[in-house]
Specification:
This protein has 419 residues and is an alpha/beta fold. It is 37% helix and 17% strand. The chain contains 13 helices and 17 strands. Strand 5, helix 5 and strand 6 form a beta-alpha-beta unit. Helix 2 packs antiparallel against helix 10, helix 3 runs parallel beside helix 10 and helix 12 packs across helix 13.
C-alpha cells in the first residue's frame, strides 16, 4: 500500500498495515498476527475492538453523531459526566471535554489561571504534557518535542522529578532532595503568590515510566495546600485502570485539584476531559474556553461511556493489578540474568525496563536492537525515556497470563540474541 501521501513528520515503529484488531492482537491482510503491547500508547485499555464498545458506537451512530454543546446538550455527554462523577473523588464534581490530551492539559492550565488569578506553572523534569505550543513548553522529556519551535510560552518552571534509579539514592532520600529543590524554586524563580498550579504525571510517561515515590506526592500536596497552589495530576497515560487503580493518584492517598484524562478513556476514539470541583469551575469565566467537537461528538462520548462500564463490569482494574504483578515478577527475574537490564519499575500494567551500559550510562543502541528483535518475533513494544533506553510495557487491561508469558519469552529470547 502506497503511503507517500503521508507527512514524513510522523515517526513509525513499523510498516505494518493492520486490517483488523482483536483483544491484544493486530492482524494484517497476509494473516500475520502481532501481539500488541503498545496499546496505541496506552489508548486501547479495553483491547482492540472490544465488542461492548463497538456495539455502543454502532447504536449511537444510527441515532445522533453530533450535537454541538454550545447549541444542545446530548444524552451521551450528560451520561459521561455522571459516569466520571461516580469514579472520581468527591472534590472532582464537574467536567470539561475536549479531543486530545494536549487540549485537556491546556484546559487545566487555563482553568488554573482563572481560578487563582496567578500566571505561572511548575512542571517536572522528564514530563510530557502534549505537542501544542503551551503543552510543548511544559514538556521536558526530550528536546525533539520542542526542536526549532522556540520561542515557547513563558511562565513555565521546571523542578526535578524524584527518579531514585537515576540519582543513585533510595526513594526517601530522592524524594526529600527533590522537595527541597522545589521549595528552592519557589524562593528563587516563581513566588507562590504568582504560581497557579503544579502539574505532575504520577508515573512519568515519555520520560521513562518512572513512578513518583509516595512521600513525594504527599509532600507535594502539602506544599500546594500551604500556598494555595492547585495540584494537577496528568493522568492522560496512567488513568482508567492502567496502574491497577482507576486513577494512579489513588495509590498515593492524595486528591488532585484538577484531574486530566484522555487516552484510555475512549478505547481508541479521540476524547479527553478535565475534572475539578464545582467551586473551582465556577471561577472559569463563561465563554473564555471551548471547542467545536469537545462535548459535541456523540460517538467518542458514547465510546467513553462504554469503556468505563466495561472496565468496571469486567473487573479490568483487578486484572491490571493481578497481571501487572505477574509481569513485574517475570521481568525482574530477567533482570537477575542480564546485567544490562538496569531497572524494572512501574505500577500495574505500566512498566518500564531500562537498559544501561557496563558503566551505568544509558544504552539506547541496545534498547533499539531488542525492540527490533521483538518486532521480528511479532511482539510490538515501544521505547521511551529521555535517552530512549527504556522499553515500556503497556498491554491492554484484558491481557492474560498466557499472553504475558508469550511476550516475556519473546523478550527473553531477544535479550539473549542481543547480548
Amino acid at each position: 500500500m502506497n503511503n507517500h501521501s503521508l507527512s514524513p513528520v510522523w515517526s513509525h515503529l513499523t510498516k505494518i498495515v493492520p486490517s483488523k484488531g482483536k483483544g491484544a492482537y493486530l492482524f494484517d491482510d497476509h494473516g500475520e498476527k502481532y501481539l500488541d503491547f503498545t496499546c496505541g500508547i496506552g489508548v486501547t485499555n479495553t483491547g482492540h475492538c472490544h465488542p461492548k464498545v463497538t456495539e455502543a458506537i454502532k447504536r449511537q451512530a444510527e441515532k445522533l453523531i453530533f450535537g454541538q454543546i454550545n447549541t444542545v446538550i446530548s444524552k451521551p455527554v450528560i451520561e459521561l459526566s455522571n459516569n466520571l462523577n461516580k469514579i472520581t473523588p468527591n472534590n472532582i464534581e464537574q467536567f470539561f471535554f475536549a479531543n486530545s490530551g494536549a487540549e485537556a492539559v491546556e484546559a487545566s492550565i487555563k482553568l488554573s489561571k482563572h481560578a487563582t488569578k496567578r500566571s505561572n506553572i511548575i512542571v517536572f523534569q522528564g514530563s510530557f504534557h502534549g505537542r501544542t505550543h503551551l503543552a510543548m513548553a511544559m514538556t521536558t522529556a526530550k528536546t525533539g518535542y520542542r526542536l526549532n519551535y522556540q520561542p515557547l510560552p513563558s511562565g513555565i518552571f521546571t523542578a526535578p522529578f524524584p527518579s531514585a534509579f537515576h540519582y543513585g539514592w533510595d526513594q526517601d532520600k530522592t524524594s526529600h532532595w527533590c522537595i527541597k529543590q522545589l521549595e528552592l524554586l519557589l524562593k528563587s524563580q516563581t513566588a507562590p503568590e504568582e504560581t497557579a498550579a503544579i502539574i505532575i504525571e504520577p508515573v512519568l510517561g515519555e520520560g521513562g515510566y518512572i513512578p513518583a515515590p509516595t512521600s513525594f506526592l504527599k509532600s507535594l500536596r502539602e506544599i500546594c495546600n500551604k500556598y494555595g497552589i492547585l495540584l494537577i495530576t496528568d493522568e492522560v497515560q496512567s488513568g482508567f485502570g492502567r496502574t491497577g487503580k482507576m486513577f494512579c493518584f489513588e495509590h498515593y492517598d492524595i486528591q488532585p485539584d484538577i484531574l486530566v484524562m484522555a487516552k484510555g478513556l475512549g478505547s481508541g476514539l479521540p476524547i479527553s476531559a478535565i475534572g475539578a470541583s464545582s467551586e473551582l469551575m465556577s471561577r472559569w469565566l463563561k465563554g473564555t474556553h471551548g471547542g467545536t467537537y469537545g462535548g459535541g461528538s456523540t460517538i467518542p462520548l458514547t465510546a467513553a461511556n462504554a469503556t468505563i462500564n466495561t472496565i468496571i463490569n469486567e473487573k479490568l482494574i483487578k486484572n491490571s493489578e493481578k497481571q501487572g504483578k505477574y509481569l513485574m515478577e517475570s521481568l525482574k527475574s530477567l533482570k537477575k540474568r542480564y546485567s544490562n537490564l538496569g531497572d524494572v519499575r512501574g505500577l500495574g500494567l505500566m512498566i518500564g525496563t531500562e537498559f544501561i551500559k557496563e558503566n551505568g550510562e544509558p544504552n539506547p543502541t541496545l534498547t533499539k536492537k531488542i525492540q527490533h528483535k521483538c518486532l521480528e518475533k511479532k511482539l510490538l513494544l515501544l521505547s521511551c525515556g529521555t535517552y530512549l533506553n527504556t522499553i515500556r510495557w503497556i498491554p491492554p487491561l484484558i491481557v492474560t497470563k498466557n499472553q504475558i508469558d508469550e511476550a516475556v519469552n519473546v523478550f527473553s529470547e531477544s535479550l539473549e540474541e542481543c547480548e
